[in-house]
Structures
1.
Amino acid sequence: GFDRHYPEIPHSIGAIERRADGELTGRFIEWGAQNLLLEKCPILSDRELEDCILRVQRALNKEGITSHTDILGEGGEHLFRGTWGSRVIDLYEKLAEEGRLTARCSIGVFSAILGQASYDAIIRGTDRVRLPEFKDRNWVKADAIKFFVDLGGPTWQRPGIRPEGSFASSWDGTEEEQIKEITRTIVELHRKGWQISKKIRRLMNKYGLYCPIRGSNPYRKMAKALKTNYTAQNIVNREFKEFGPRKVLLTDITYLFYQEGCCYLSVITDVCTHEVLAYTVSRSLKIDFVMDMIDELLKKYEAELDDKTIIHSDQGFHYTCRAFVKKLQDHSFIQSMSRKGNCWDNAPQESFFGHMKDEIKEVIKESNTFDEVNEILRDWIDYYNKDRYQWELERLSPAEYYLYQQTGIYPLNKGKTKNKLEQRIDK
């Protein structure tokens, strides 16, 4: 079924090599392309696959090897006459229960649908993975996802062999787009509870990626330039985890430097879900932009708030002025304030600003206009709410966690036995 008229296939699937006149050479590059070819070929029966497993293990035993890894899953259904297919996972478990295995096996699940190198194929594949119970994980286990990045394997590193017009992997897009998709895939797999062993470190080194570690802030006290004329009781009292969604909202202001000077960001977040519910950016510290933030909060979430909702802040003049206090009273909100000069009383909000600046401070610093800063903040906050997965939120994004709290429906379905770490998280 393959001839010179067979259409070109996407880069993420692979390549079918052709001569100058268009005729096929018979070389199918990458697993996706090989799956296209080999799905037309017969695969082994269960009994033949069992025999393959046992013969390989006996060969390993002769070399003194008592444990190994195997790559199995939907991405390899048609590869090597089915010996990479998902059916083999069940056969490993069957052989383990029968006591016939002679070496331990750790399975790397090849989840990519038909072996395609893309975020969509890999993540959708994990949702379709159905693994056996693995009654004795000392013999067989499957905690890790295996996916492939290097085009043509180790030949990639050799000068003069890199395929013309291609990038650092078989993924689609420019090199920058590939790095973004690969990173996105790693993050999503990790939050779904899958391991990727040393691949993360290797890929980060290869592509120059790094994860900054925040140092502690030596400035624990913030000087107040203006004298306040009103203070509220510290109702929250650092008990940030004692409240449900939309019950305690934290607010604060931070400054951001860019090419034209400095601007100010006012944010209000839900302490339970970590969602940014409203924010405003201003060129000045006039009270108006904080009032606008409250208006935005009411416009979007008034139906979810009630007379038990607490708005907690420091004792800055924006929150002690009459206009702000009256605004909260008019909408039956309860006002709470940190102790004077004690940033720990509003620690989650301070932490949010710290992480935000770790990620986008340098980008904002290079921005030429106030509008550019606004655009960067809008994109990052949208990403933070919808795609910034957090272990503290059971590996969900803030928006997903709020929905989970409201419905009780947990959106991540790995289709595999939970490991000890996951059981501790659930507990």
2.
Amino acid sequence: MDEPRQNISSGSPWELLMGYCRAVRVDNQIHVAGTSPHLPDGTVDPDAEDQARRCLEIIEGALLEAGGQLSDVVRTRVYLVDAADFDAVARAHSTFFNDVRPANTTVVVAGLLDARWKVEIEADAIIGDPARVRH
């Protein structure tokens, strides 16, 4: 990477309003902001597992744009509105990360920015030699 910092924008109007971007890459680290389950047309699937899957698809896109991939993820943070949705969200998370197994924190929160959202997810990645990973 030629520049010391790379900002990855999703084009979301919230980025300009709040002054943030979807992801930031500095050297070999990528930090992906809290990612909501909105679809390109602004709708939100009501199913918690589908919402988590959508969040992770957006995260994967940001990682790829920053030169990383899902296998580089070392930590995820999952914010749930309802603890009863944990199993559904865990299934989606496992689909993306079962072979990677990043550190994870999942917390139940009082609410998210949009009442339709059941989950929001963040991720941190370190781009490196995958041969160094030990299970």
3.
Amino acid sequence: MSSDIATPLTNQPVATTYVKQGSGGTPILLIHGFDSSVLEFRRLLPLLSGDNETWAVDLLGFGFTDRLSGIASYSPTAIKTHLYYFWKSLINQPVILVGASMGGATAIDFTFIIATREIPNFSWQLITGLEPSLPIVGDSVFYFLFNLICLTILAFLYQIIKSHSFRRIISCIIVLFCLFYFEASCLLNFSIPDH
């Protein structure tokens, strides 16, 4: 199928190719990887559509979706903007995102767009996953990403430091960060997502 999706990227709507099968349940949105198309999910889509409405979309600049000359850049920002307007135009309800390779990165970017556009009070509390409940992707996404980013930075520092004493300090910081975050959250009566 194809549908014209209006976006702020160009005055012309983008003819966007997608496949939709099944009904009921929480919709599943399949996002293909780099240099691919909806055909990437030709075997998976029928299996998922037995219990859920399942969508697969060709991202902007890929597959059978139009590549318009009016779009200056097919950057990750343009791709996630197009995906947002596809979702808003045709699905417009909470979805389960499944992304392969570049599609996984696009799914994470899409989550941030949903948070900033669909939730009016985007704040530090939201980034850390403490509040409020996210309508599209669940409570634990930002909490997980926040911890992942912090721990990745500390792990990187651990690898580049050659001194054993500094490595011990970094190890202690990692352990203390994890403990402090949980303990501070409990003491301040924050509800940390547990699912």
4.
Amino acid sequence: MPRDGLHHTDRRRHHIRRIASGSRRRGYREYTLVLNYDDDGDGGDYKLTERYIGKADAVFVSEGDFSLHSSTPQDAAQRYLKLVPDHADRAADQATSSAEVRYFLVDSDSTLTLVGADLQRPDSLLNYTLTRK
């Protein structure tokens, strides 16, 4: 039984999308994150697609495992997701692989916010919140 609102009860799949705006010179980034939960509901597989919209459209795809964590150092009630790409497990250079790990704060059953490894919200005018579609 799902323990939180992140689970899509029919297929245990969560699909979110957000366009994060940037300056006109840098263009925009569109993020699409698909989470496929394991039976225990504490993690599973993910696919993150980043599409840079601007002068030279580019698409970057990351796939791997994610885990759901129940608290951050700043807030015991704040849940977050940790996304670890498949190739990071095999990387010889741990500094490189840890830089590719992504973190999302769970804001509600329909929104996540992309944050850094410190699990702090970005001090930026850009919007890093992904909304369930």
